[in-house]
Design brief:
Elements: H1 2-17, H2 40-44, E1 74-81, E2 87-97, E3 102-112, E4 118-119, E5 125-127
Length: about 130
């Protein structure tokens, strides 16, 4: 009876651990080309902005530990009018609260994909 319980425990543990697989290739999705950078500076650096310093409030989108007193009272607005009717933008602000000794940052990112035509597997239009 005890051996049977141990076997069932291992089988159940194996089944629960089976779907716990790390993401292959280090990418978060197959459509990484659809991601837009938070600002022109981050786009110019190819998105490698994790350890950048220098008072840019947009670092909060890549590493939340970076914004500090150097980014206090710093607003940032970015807008991208991309191919056809794709629009993307970023609003960000950072403020140092001296009473609690920390910097609070907040941001909003948006993407509007425009009108995309829906088609079935043979290419016939099915709507927008």
């Amino acid at each position: 009876m005890r051996l049977q319980s141990v076997i069932w425990a291992f089988l159940l543990g194996g089944l629960l651990a089976a779907p716990a697989v790390a993401q292959p290739g280090g990418s978060l999705s197959s459509f990484s080309l659809l991601r837009f950078d938070a600002s022109a500076r981050t786009a110019a650096m190819g998105g490698a902005y994790t350890a950048a310093a220098g008072g840019d409030v947009n670092t909060m989108f890549y590493n939340s530990a970076i914004p500090g007193p150097a980014t206090s009272r710093t607003p940032s607005v970015s807008y991208l009018n991309h191919l056809t009717d794709i629009n993307a933008g970023t609003l960000a602000y950072s403020h140092t609260v001296s009473g609690i000794g920390t910097t609070l940052s907040g941001g909003l990112r948006f993407v509007h994909w425009g009108t995309i035509q829906r088609r079935n597997d043979v290419g016939e239009r099915t709507g927008t």
